[in-house]
Amino acid sequence: MFDGYQSDGLFDEMFDDRGLPRPHYAAATERLERLGPVSFERRRQMADVSFRNQGITFTVYSDQRGVEKIFPFDLIPRIIPEAEWRMIERGLVQRITAINLFCKDVYHAQRILREGVIPSDLVLGAKMFRREMIGVDPPHDIYAHICGTDLIRDERGKYLVLEDNCRTPSGVSYVLENRAVMKRVFPALFAAYRVRSIEDYPYHLLQTLKHVAPRHAPDPTVVVLTPGVHNSAYFEHSFLARQMGVALVEGRDLVVEDNFVYMRTTAGPRRVDVIYRRLDDDFLDPLAFRPDSALGVAGLMNCCRLGNVSLVNAVGAGIADDKAIYPYVPAMIRFYLRQEPILDNVPTYICARGDDRRYVLEHLHELVVKCTNEAGGYGMLMGHQSTDAERAIFADKIRHDPRNFIAQPIVQLSQHPSYVADGPRGPAFEGRRIDLRPYILYGRKIVVMPGGLTRVALRRGSLVVNSSQGGGSKDTWVLEEDGLPDPVAHDIPDAPGERPSPDRTSPGQPSPERIPAERTPMYRTAPSRTPAQPTSPGRTPEARS
Amino acid sequence: MNRPIHDAVAAPSGESGARARPMLSREAEAVYWMARYVERAETVARMLLVDSTLLVDVGDLAPALRERQWHAIHHIMRVPEPPPDDQPLGQRVTRGMALDPLNPNSLVSCVTRARENARAVRESISAEMWENVNTLHWSLLDGAGERFNESPDELFRRTMSDCLLFQGLTDQTLAHDQRWLFAQLGKFLERADLTCRILQVKSDIIRDAETTTELALRNLLWMATLRTCCAIEGFRRANAGEIDGQRVASFLILQADFPRSIRFSLHHAHAAIRGIRAETNPGAADPAERILGRLDAMLEYAEPTHVLLDGIGDLLHLILATTADAAVALHKAYYLR
What is the edge-to-edge ordering of all strands in the sheet holding A254-257? Predict the structure, then answer.
C-alpha cells in the first residue's frame, strides 16, 4: 500500500530521503505493508465503531444543533525514538519552568520588564494580563500547572515550538483513548515495540491538583469544572473526572459563601478545595470578569485571591501564551534560568514593533499572520493563499491595532504516512502533515507525558491539523531505551489466521535495523513534484478548547 | 488562618482517609431520569410489540374497539393522538410511537433522553452502562426506519432486551450506593406509574366493551394487558388459569412478589428513598420518604376484596396522585438543594 508514496521534498517521519524506512519504523512499515488493504480497512472500522460506542466524540457546531463527531483516527502510529524524545522532554521542562517564573515575576516584582528584556506595554497591555492577580500568591508559585506545547518539524526534521498553551489545553483524553484502541486493533505490533506507557497521566494530573490545594485542606476535594455537555471538549472533561475519580461540576453546581466554594450535593453543601477549570478566565466569575457569563460562579475570584480555593491553571497564566509574548520565551529562559533554549521558536515578527511591522506589511503574501489572542485558527491570514483584497483588509487591521498581530514565515510541517481509503488508485498510504502536542504537568515535580497528541491534516496537501477543519489524530509511540522490536517478536500475527510468511520465521534473520538496507526502497523519491500533490505551506494551529 | 464557617457535610474524614465522593444534586437528578427513561423505553417497546401481535391476531374486533385499543398507547403515555394520514391506523400509531422524534415518549425520544442524561453523568455511572445506552441510541438513530420496515417486532424485542441489559448492568456494575439508589428510585417510580396507567386505560376499554364482546375476546384483551406488563406467566401460576378483570387487577396492583406489580414497585421505591436519606441525611424521614412509606404500607396491608370492591379506578387514581406528590417532594429535597 506504499506504492506511489511520495515525500515531495518534505521531511518524512517514516522514510529517509532515499525512500527507505528509518530504523525505528522498519518493523511497523513491514507489518503494515504485509497487512493489505482489506485487513487494514477492517481494523479501521473496528476502531471507528469502538470510538463511537464509547462516545469518544467532540461536538461540531455547524448549525443550531451541535453534532457529535468522532475525532478521525489514523491507525498508523507515529514513532519517536528514545534519544529524540529525551531532547524534547528536556526542552519542555525548561520551557514550563521559565514560563512559570515569568508569570510569578509579572504579577509581582516585574523584574523582566524593569530590566527591559520584554517591553512593559506588551505585557501590561495584553488582554490575558490579569490585574486581579497582582500580589496574589498561588500555592507553590505555580501558574501554568498543565501545559500543552505544540511542536512542529521543519524541512530538515528539526523540532520547533509553534505555541505554548497555558490556559486550558485540550486533547489529552484522545491520546489515552487512541492508545487504548491501538492496543486492541494492533496488539502484536504494539507488543513488538517497547512503547513508554502513558496510562498514568490521570494519576499524575490528580497529584498535581492535590499538590496545590490550600493549606487548610490536607485531604482536598478536587473537582473538574466544565462549561457543560454542549462544550466541544465535554467528553474530555468527563473522561478526566472519571479517570481521577472526582466530581465533574458545572458552574450551577457551585456556590460561594463567606469566600469559600461549595458544591451542591444530595447531602447539602460540600466544600471544594481545588478546581481544575476547563473554562477561560473570562467566564469564571461574573463579578470579576465578564458579567454576562453564567458558566462560572459569582465570587469565585475572591475565594481564589484569599487562598481559599485553588484554580488550575491559575488565573492570568494566559499571559504566557499571548502570541506576542511567545517570541520572548527564549529570552525568559536566558533571563531566569541562565540557560540556552533547548527547543527553538518559529521566527516571529511582532507587529507592535515598527521594523517588524514594516517588514510584515511588505511581505504579507509569504507570511502567516495571526491574532495574538485568538485560538483555534481564528483570525488568521495565510499570506500565500490569500487574495489581494484579503491582504488589504489585514494590512488595515495591522496598521489600526498592531499589538493584536504577529506574523511568521510559512513553516513546512513534517509528513507521515496516513491511510487514505479513497485514494486515486484505491486504498493506500499517503503522506499527510502532522504536528505534536505533548502535555506537561507542573506539580511537586514536572512530568512530561511520553508522547502526546499527534494531529494530522487529513486533507491532501493541507497544513491545517485542526479537528474542526478535517484534522485527525494518531497514536504517538515514544520508545523505551532499546525499544525496537527484535526480529522474532514482530512476526507474531495480529489476528488469528494471519500466519507470518515462512521466510520471515526462519532463524538467522537480519536484525530489523538492517532490514531496510537490504530491501528496495518502499517508494521512489524522484518524481517529487506531481500535480496531485500541491505543496501549500502555512498552517493553522488549534489552540485550546 | 481562614476557616470555613461551616464545613457543611461534616464528612467522616480522617477515619480511613478515603471519603465516599458526594453526589451532586444535578447528578442525582440525571441518574434518576436516566433510569426512568430506560424503564419507559422498555415498556413502550413491549406495548408496541404486544399490540401489534394482538391486533393482527384478533381480526374480528369491532372497528370502534379496535381503534380504542390502538389509541390506548397514546393515553397511557399521555401523548396526543397523531392526526390521521393515509397510513393504516396500526402502522401510523406504531411508527409514531417508535420513531417520531417529536413525540416526547416515542421509543427514540425515550432512549435519546436516557442517553443524554447518562452522558451528563458519565463519570458517575459505569463504562458498561454508558456503552450500552450509547450503542442503543446510535442503533436507533442509524437505520431504525429500515429495521422498522423490515421487522418491527425485531426492533422492539431488541430494544427491550437492551433496556433490560442496561438495568442488569446497573445492578451488577455500579456500587449500590446512592447513585444506584437514585436509579432504583427512578426505575420503580416509573414502573409503578406505567403499570397504573396501563391498568387504568385498558380496564376502561374492556369494561366499556363488556356488553358487546364475547367472554373469550374479553379474556384475550385481559391477557394482552398482562403481557404488556410482562405478567402473563406469573399471573397463570398464581391463579391456576382462571382469568377475569378482578384477578388481573388484583395481581397487577397487589401481588407482593411480582416485580412489575404496583405494590412491588412502590415497596422498592420506598426502600430506595429510605437508603438515600440514610446516606445523605441520617435523621428524620423526609417528605418524599413519608409519602412513599404511607403508600407502601397501605398497599401492603390492604384487604384485596375490599380494595377491589371499592373500585380499582379510585385506587389507581390515588396511587398516581401520591406518586406524583412523592416525585415533587423528591425534587425539592434532593435536586434543588
Answer: A254-257, A260-265, A268-271
